[in-house]
């Protein structure tokens, strides 16, 4: 079973009664309420069992102890040799075993997603803090402590399926809730706004950012002419550009990103009353990012960096967790804002509408098969359930069409909802029939409604069915935009002004790098003229980085917009969410060589592992190294196969012969310098100080709390300080000078 495979007794089930929310009562059972004996579930949900496991289990294939067969179940005796007319004779057309094998192989690939092709996913559950029936009748929020299984896929947007994880890009954050009222997909991003206001522009945006069509370059990068040509002509994209050029565009981990539903949605309660709502996921691990030099280097050494991080965290039992918060607001409030809540290029500052925490999501199980689950999962914004409704956001409208449409090509027909990962836990009953790859075997002769021959079944659910909120909005048909959509800069300015100095510097660097890759000067200049409208400071610094003069501001679409409610919002800085997990899952590199002092490494190792960090001994090669005590230390990675920038922090060991050997190794200095350059914590023990000196790194605890020195004898005493320093993620004071 999966349990045994991964060595975790609790890998399958949500931990019963555990909650990060103080004062939250213990949950004693899954409250998933699907009917006993449905085709999909085979039975009622069991206590503590993720209700999506049993249905998927039906389809799992385990070859252990089994003989090899064809797809028809015919035993295969020889899987090595083609059937031939004589040993040196021609192969025979009759060889159905060869032909079946090759034919299947020839068709193994399906089209990749037109956007978000590169991604990784995991199973888990959502747990409601409280009943939310005042606002919504949506199943996951119906009871305090209710758990609903989820499958979550994270992705980059522009790159192809095999592209690097650490590209500068928005990240997809798509959550499929398998509720007892059907599937609900919240298909969001790690950024709360979008590039465009209207779905009509989506194909243009994607064509502009994807590799240029004549030569297919660049891969997984927006730093090229067509992207900047398009966005510089679309000032509505400026706010989103600020986010993507910021550190949000290069997250440290999928586990350390916020998620946003982006659009305004509607919640509807049992009385048919509705409020507006925006969805926010906040990671318990905190929001953390890479720095650009690090992201570029990682993309070479480990293109699977985020996939590996998510997989390893879950395998090790460090289940990533997010809190779901809602911004709930009324139409009257919406009307009073200086921006339009139907405009996806705008967010609602948390100062205006604070978040109401409503539950938590825990990802506690890796998929069994990447293709069957992660590749074949089909998210769709049209997948809503009673209690969740759409707003009139014109971007959302296009999405409601696009997702199910794209799956028909990608997954080969209209029955993709029957693929196990997509099938709801709730029973499916309707008169839709046939089509490519139909799995269900419908009984009886009735596939129409009304009918008398099947007793009128399946019958309409009436008031229990999904009701579209009767949004009264009769107006003349028109192709156009509401007035406030024409204001394009106020929130881009708000974002810039809400960042720390280091974050602002990174935004400048992001624009400078991207625009430096744009070959046509007029595009650079047009973009700069747009940035003038965001911030004079930003425009000047980017212009200086490109060796250009600041041009005239781009004329604005709206001359006298309503004044913004606020000019700074703390929540927009990544530093607003430092996280509650300390050094848990942080990757610590400890350099080793022959003759390292064993005792200090052993005590640091034990303190770090106790705190939940992952410690790697790294040598010039992998394998055993003898320590001063005669005990062996095993390097599980080498500086060649795991360069320094892959780690969160570094320990330089004590022991003269070891340090000398490390000095003599040509890769050591780069390993150390990258840690310093990327503002990470470095601890040097005893003789290890020499390595710091050789790298030109000064230890000054006042100026830089991320460089620690200690003698071997003090390893125990320094451990808590080191742990605190690593938990700080980065020591940006180093960068600031
Ligand atoms: Fe989209 C995939 C998120 C606008 C059309 N989108 C896709 C995925 C995510 C998002 C996370 C990957 C789902 C997965 O993991 O399988 N998309 C967004 C967000 C948007 C957005 C947050 C703006 C708020 N998307 C958007 C528009 C359209 C699409 C305006 C079209 C009108 N998106 C698609 C798509 C994709 C997709 C073509 C490609 C593969 C897929 O759907 O399943 O239909």
Automatic annotation (TrEMBL):
Pfam families: Catalase, Catalase-rel, Catalase_C. Keywords: Heme, Hydrogen peroxide, Iron, Metal-binding, Oxidoreductase, Peroxidase. Its cofactor is heme. Coiled coil: none annotated. Residues 69-457 form the Catalase core domain. InterPro entries: Catalase, Catalase_AS, Catalase_clade2, Catalase_clade2_helical, Catalase_core, Catalase_immune_responsive, Catalase_large_C, Catalase_sf. GO terms for biological process: hydrogen peroxide catabolic process; response to oxidative stress. It catalyses: 2 H2O2 = O2 + 2 H2O. Its EC number is 1.11.1.6. PROSITE patterns: CATALASE_2, CATALASE_3. The active site is at 116, 189. GO terms for molecular function: catalase activity; heme binding; metal ion binding. Heme binds at residues 113, 153, 202, 399, 403, 410. SUPFAM superfamilies: Class I glutamine amidotransferase-like (SSF52317), Heme-dependent catalase-like (SSF56634). One of its GO terms (cellular component) is cytosol. Belongs to the catalase family. HPII subfamily. Decomposes hydrogen peroxide into water and oxygen; serves to protect cells from the toxic effects of hydrogen peroxide. This is Catalase. It comes from Marinobacter gudaonensis.
């Amino acid at each position: 079973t999966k349990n045994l495979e991964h060595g975790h007794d609790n890998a399958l089930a949500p931990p019963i009664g555990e909650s990060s929310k103080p004062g939250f009562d213990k949950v004693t059972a899954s409250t998933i309420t699907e009917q006993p004996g449905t085709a999909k579930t085979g039975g009622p949900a069991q206590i503590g069992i993720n209700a999506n496991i049993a249905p998927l289990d039906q389809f799992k294939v385990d070859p252990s102890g089994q003989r090899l067969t064809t797809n028809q179940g015919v035993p295969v005796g020889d899987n090595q040799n083609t059937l031939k007319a004589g040993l040196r004779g021609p192969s025979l057309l009759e060889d159905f075993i060869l032909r079946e094998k090759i034919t299947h192989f020839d068709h193994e690939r399906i089209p990749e997603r037109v956007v978000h092709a590169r991604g990784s996913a995991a199973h888990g559950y959502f747990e409601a803090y409280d009943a939310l029936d005042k606002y919504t009748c949506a199943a996951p929020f119906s009871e305090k402590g209710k758990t609903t299984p989820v499958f979550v896929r994270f992705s980059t947007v522009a790159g192809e399926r095999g592209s690097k994880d650490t590209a500068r890009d928005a990240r997809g954050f798509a959550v499929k809730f398998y509720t007892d009222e059907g599937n609900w997909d919240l298909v969001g991003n790690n950024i709360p706004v979008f590039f465009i206001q209207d779905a009509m522009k989506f194909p243009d945006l994607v064509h502009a950012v994807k590799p240029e069509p004549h030569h297919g370059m660049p891969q997984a990068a927006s730093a090229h002419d067509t992207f900047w040509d398009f966005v510089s002509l679309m000032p509505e994209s400026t706010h989103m550009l600020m986010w993507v050029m910021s550190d949000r565009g290069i997250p440290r981990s999928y586990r350390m990103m916020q998620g946003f539903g982006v659009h305004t949605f509607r919640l509807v309660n049992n009385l048919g009353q509705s409020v507006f709502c925006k969805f926010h996921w906040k990671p318990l691990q905190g929001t953390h990012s890479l720095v650009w030099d690090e992201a570029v280097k990682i993309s070479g050494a480990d293109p699977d960096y985020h996939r590996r991080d998510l997989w390893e965290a879950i395998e090790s039992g460090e289940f990533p967790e997010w809190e779901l918060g809602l911004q709930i607001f009324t139409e009257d409030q919406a009307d009073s804002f200086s921006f339009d809540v139907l405009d996806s290029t705008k967010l609602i500052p948390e100062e205006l509408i604070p978040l109401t925490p409503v539950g938590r999501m825990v990802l506690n199980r890796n998929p069994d098969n990447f293709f069957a689950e992660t590749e074949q999962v089909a998210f769709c914004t049209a997948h809503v359930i009673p209690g969740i409704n759409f707003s009139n956001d014109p971007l959302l409208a296009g999405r409601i069409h696009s997702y199910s449409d794209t799956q028909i090509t990608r997954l080969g027909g209209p029955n993709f909802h029957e693929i196990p990962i997509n099938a709801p836990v709730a029973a499916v009953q309707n008169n839709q029939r046939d089509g490519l790859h139909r799995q269900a075997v419908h009984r009886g002769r009735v596939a129409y409604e009304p009918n008398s021959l099947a007793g009128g079944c399946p019958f309409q659910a009436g008031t229990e069915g999904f009701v579209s909120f009767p949004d009264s909005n009769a107006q003349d048909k028109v192709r156009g935009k509401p007035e406030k959509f024409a204001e394009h800069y106020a929130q881009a300015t708000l974002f810039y002004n809400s960042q720390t100095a280091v974050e602002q510097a990174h935004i400048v660097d992001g624009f400078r790098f991207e625009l430096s890759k744009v070959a046509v000067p007029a595009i650079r200049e047009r973009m700069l003229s747009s940035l003038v409208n965001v911030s004079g400071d930003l425009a000047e610094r980017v212009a200086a980085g490109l060796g250009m003069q600041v041009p005239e501001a781009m004329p604005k679409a709206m001359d006298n917009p309503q004044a913004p409610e606020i000019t700074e919002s703390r929540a927009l800085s990544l530093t607003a969410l430092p996280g509650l997990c300390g050094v848990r899952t942080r990757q610590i590199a400890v350099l080793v060589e022959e003759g390292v002092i064993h005792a200090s490494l052993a005590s640091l190792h034990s303190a770090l592992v106790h705190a939940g960090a992952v410690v790697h001994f790294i040598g010039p090669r992998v394998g055993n190294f003898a320590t001063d005590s005669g005990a062996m230390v095993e390097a599980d990675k080498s500086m060649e196969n795991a360069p320094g920038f892959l780690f969160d922090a570094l320990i330089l060991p004590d022991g003269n012969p070891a340090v000398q050997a490390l000095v003599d190794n040509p890769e050591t200095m780069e390993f150390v310098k990258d840690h310093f350059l990327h503002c990470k914590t470095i601890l040097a023990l005893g003789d290890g100080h020499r390595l710091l000196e050789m790298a030109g790194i000064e230890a000054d605890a006042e100026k830089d709390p991320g460089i620690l020195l200690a003698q071997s004898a003090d390893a125990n005493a320094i451990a808590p300080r080191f742990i605190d320093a690593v938990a700080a993620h980065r020591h940006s004071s180093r960068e600031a000078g």
